[in-house]
Amino acid sequence: MRTFTIAGYLGTDLELQTKDDTTWTQLRVATNDGRRTDWFWVTAFGKLAEIMVEKLGKGDGIAIRGFLRVDTYKDKEQVKLIAREADFFPKAH
Fold first, then answer.
1. Structure confidence at residue 2 as a pLDDT band (50, 70, 90)
2. Helical H segments across the chain, by residue range
């Protein structure tokens, strides 16, 4: 399996979502190379999602490792990273 890493800052506060027995959270992560900002969609499931929602908020730093998945919605494709591990760098709230 290929592993990808994204390191950046959260663009929004996180919310835990639940359906049936599955819990998850959606993240928008901004990366910046000094010239431009790129935004990435990330989804975390289960205990990792619960910890992220509890510990992180908008503007906090995060490095996420996982795999890519392509979802199709209404004739549009969205590439997102499915998180397997993460390191947090929360700012002082």
1. confident
2. 46-55
